[in-house]
Amino acid sequence: MEKVPGVKLSHFWDDMHAKKKSQIVTQLVMFDKALASNPFPEYGSLYCAEDGPRDDNFVIGPTTNRRYFDDGRGTLTLDRGPCKFCIGTTVEEYLVANSQREKESILHLGDSPRLQGLFNGPGQYRPSKTAKLRALDCYFRVAKYLLPENKATHRPLLWHPDLHTDNIFVDPEDPTRITGVIDWQAAHIAPLFLQVHRPGLLVFDGPLPESLKLPVLPENFQELNVEEKQRAKKLHAEQSLYVFYEIELLKQCRDVGNALRLRDTLVGQIAALSGSIFTDGEPIVLGYLMQVVDRWAEIVG
Predict the structure, then answer these.
(1) 86-90 mean pLDDT
(2) Whether the bond into 156 is cis, omega within 30 of 0
(3) In 90, 153, 256, 297, which residue has its Cα 20 to 30 A from 272's Cα atom?
(4) What protein family does this chain belong to (predicted)?
């Protein structure tokens, strides 16, 4: 194992000016473009050849996706791949395999270890195996109709799972230059539309931009007090960087940019959540599926 040169970006990020942060984001976009330019023939994870069945330097083997191992799932007998890629049916099979993993978890691992949301309190919703299995069954019935129309978003790609400032290393003499990225152990090869997501360093507390237009300061900015102006400037900078990433991604790799925007749609949200019903709770998935029923002609065509 090699040591990554440089120091963590987290040492500099909070004190960086917007222009320097945009230089980091531009490099991350080119990093995404490089990953998107190298599709794979199978879904799974990369292994050194000495750990696999062939003589190449690297081979594709079973997935290392943490959702197949966390919370006791590693003890289950599951289809972890690899799975050869064939546009259309294989993507559907991949989604069904994810949901089957959730079904086995619900049946054999007991109560969810970390349910998200307000559950189990007085008068609140109480998750149950029956309700979770019902949600999965409903999803199984419509999964093949909810695949993205753009087949380019189905192709198998390797993607980094968590690009936050502690996983990105930079040159200490020039903190705008990325020298390496760590924390690849759970990286896996999966359909692009499930893989792509915004880097963790772009996540912020506050309203997300509603379009690709660069944000502006509030109209009453001059009327705000000093503390309010500081908060407004901070939010404006965070929103601007968020939009800048998406614009640059669309410029450099339109398929990836379109896949990112798909994640925010009803179809994209269902595809993502259907693989986490064991831990995240089924009410949201069922709510989304009811929206699909109401918008069936629009979504399925």
Answers:
(1) 56
(2) no
(3) 297
(4) Belongs to the AIM9 family.
